[in-house]
Design a protein that fits this description.
With 109 residues, this protein is mostly beta strands. The protein is built from one helix and six strands; from the N terminus they run βββαβββ. The longest helix is centred in the middle third of the chain and has 14 residues.
């Protein structure tokens, strides 16, 4: 369905594709734990006059990540949730651009 998932998109990459974008992290400590929270942005692109394929890709990303359960090194997931999903058409009136922002909280195991 997609040509790839990238943190750096190669020149002339074939559509549709997904780009893992900006991240932000904040450390926090509780009475009996250490952890961090943050956000990550996931973008998807397609060159089509219809946004259907883009919305299908965004839907699949949501299914995979929203309320997902996974481990990250020495941390356990407490929460991983989608807080924003949007899509636009670029200035060329062809390229569909989907943006999803996921927020997360991790704590030490």
């Amino acid at each position: 369905m997609i040509s790839g998932v990238f943190d750096y998109v190669p020149d002339e990459q074939e559509y549709p594709y997904v780009e893992i974008g900006e991240d932000s992290f904040t450390s926090f400590n509780g009475h009996n734990f250490n952890g961090f929270s943050g956000e990550t942005t996931i973008r998807c692109y397609d060159s089509n006059t219809s946004s259907l394929k883009l919305k299908q890709i965004q839907s699949r990303i949501y299914e995979l990540l929203h309320d997902s359960s996974f481990l990250l090194d020495s941390f356990k997931k407490i929460n991983f949730r989608c807080k924003l999903t949007t899509s636009t058409v670029d200035n060329d009136n062809i390229t569909q651009n989907g943006i999803q922002v996921f927020e997360f909280i991790f704590a030490e195991k």
